[in-house]
Amino acid sequence: MKTDFSTAEIKERIFQNTPTIVPCPDHLKPASILIPFYENENGLSLIFMMRPDYPGVHGAQISFPGGKQDASDEDQLSVALRETEEEIGVKREDIEVWGGLSSRQTGMSSYWVTPFVGQIPYPYEFEPDPAEVDRLIIIPFAHLLDPKYATYGDFDFKGYTFPSQMYAYGDDVVWGLTARVLKGFISFLRTGQESL
Fold first, then answer.
1. For 96, what's the count of Cα atoms within 13 Å in the CB-facing half-sphere?
2. Is the pLDDT of residue 1 over 80?
3. What are the residues facing 115 on neighbouring strands?
4. Higher-confidence residue: 159 or 55?
5. How does pLDDT run across 133-151, given as a tens digit for each residue?
6. Which of 24, 38, 40, 67 is an S-S bond match for 83, by CB 3.0 to 4.6 Å?
7. Is the pLDDT at 58 greater than 80, yes or no?
8. Is the torsion defined by CA of 81, 63, 175, 168 positive or negative?
9. What is the 8-class DSSP label of residue 14?
10. How far is 52 from 129, CA to CA, in rounded Å?
11. Could you tell me which residues are beta bridge partners of residue 139?
């Protein structure tokens, strides 16, 4: 099992990918996220954000930057770039977009999410919106590729138990849709096929 990928390898593979972009079903709300790579002093890493513990299903969860589509957004990619700029303060023109992944539905809410992959230049002065972001979590990609930190099981959240893919990093656990997207992306890098 491959546990290391260079930036060039990831860029080439995602550039050649033809994702399954299915139009948002009528009963769901379109949304997009960015899987943001960041090559810092710890090597190639991914940026996640811990959301504040606000009311609603997404409060106090770890996620990638992203959100629902607005009427002013031109397409799904523009949603991901706008939300990244609004949430963590990265200007959209500073993001090098590598490509996209297949759309999928959230498990806890009625969103139809399209992921995109890109890179933020290092170093960068992030400006997280405190209403949207409690803190940034930057995890080395090699850590996420290590099978000993990836599990599937029951995750307890706000008095409920959810079966979920999970990735542990210190005291933080990536779970839910974010973990599902991450697993699909890693599967794509290793096998050429996303696991949805």
1. 13
2. no
3. 33
4. 159
5. 999 999 999 999 999 999 9
6. 67
7. no
8. positive
9. H
10. 10
11. 46
**Share of the chain residues as helix, strand and coil, in percent rounded to the nearest 5:** 25, 35, 40
Place of tokens 């997404």: 58
CA atoms of 175 and 162, how far apart (whole Å): 9
145 CB-near residues (< 8 Å, 6+ apart): 2, 3, 4, 5, 186
Distance CA 66, CA 32 (A): 6
* Alpha-carbon Rg for the chain in angstroms: 16
First-residue to last-residue Cα distance in the chain? 19
Q: What is the pLDDT of residue 59?
A: 66
Q: Residue ranges per domain, the chain?
A: 7-141
Out of 18-22, 23-27, 175-179, pick the least confident.
18-22
Question: For residue 18, what pLDDT is reported?
Answer: 86
Token pair of 164 as six digits: 């979920």
Q: pTM above the 0.85 mark?
A: yes
Q: 17 to each of 14, 50, 100, 118, 194, how far by Cα in Å?
A: 5, 29, 8, 14, 10
How buried is 123 (Cβ within 10 angstroms: 0-12 exposed, 13-18 middle, 19+ buried)?
Answer: exposed
CATH number of 7-141: 3.90.79.10
Closest Cα to residue 116, out of 9, 34, 8? 34
Kindly give the pairing relationship between strand 135-140 and strand 111-120.
Answer: unpaired
Location of structure tokens 């992959």: 117
106: Cα separation from own chain's centroid: 12
Token couple for 176: 């839910």
- In this prediction, residue 92 carries a pLDDT of 97
Question: In the predicted model, what is the mean pLDDT of residues 35-51?
Answer: 97
